[in-house]
Amino acid sequence: MGRQSKAYKAGFEKGQADGSWILDGNSTKETANRILDGFENGDPEIMDLQRAPLSGEFAGESISELSSQYGIDLEKEENQDRFENGYSDGFWNEVQRSAKAIVS
Asked: What is the pLDDT of residues 37-96, one digit of tens each?
């Protein structure tokens, strides 16, 4: 897989943390299965569970604040791309892990 960049790792970490909020102990097997199937099929409703990590939608999550938090210059486009790719991988890794745990 090769060495991952600091921006990718930071994005992955953030994505995992955000993904942990999608399902919880009250989530049903039906919901978990719907998420797993929807992810596999690219269902837009399920794919929209992942927000844009650099949108600044939430307080404390502007590009400059995240740059400071992770010690990465997210003003650079290549770092933004790496962060967003890591975020997506981390987010869906955690959501699928949680969903599979509920189903089994």
From this structure: 999 999 999 999 999 999 888 877 889 999 999 999 999 999 999 999 999 999 999 999
- Would you place residue 1 in the very low, low, confident or very high pLDDT band (cuts 50, 70, 90)? very low
User: Token match 């399902």: residue?
Assistant: 23
Give the Cα separation of 19 and 41 in Å (integer).
Answer: 19
The number of folded domains in the chain is 1
Q: Angle at Cα 11 formed by Cα 70 and Cα 63, nearest 5°?
A: 55
Q: Which token pair is 91?
A: 């987010």
State pTM to two decimals. 0.90
**Domain containing residue 35:** 6-103
Rounded Cα distance between 72 and 84, Å, is 13
* Cα angle for residues 39, 74, 70 (degrees, 5° grid): 85
Does residue 77 belong to any structural domain of this protein?
Answer: yes
DSSP string computed for 83-100: HHHHHHHHHHHHHHHHHH
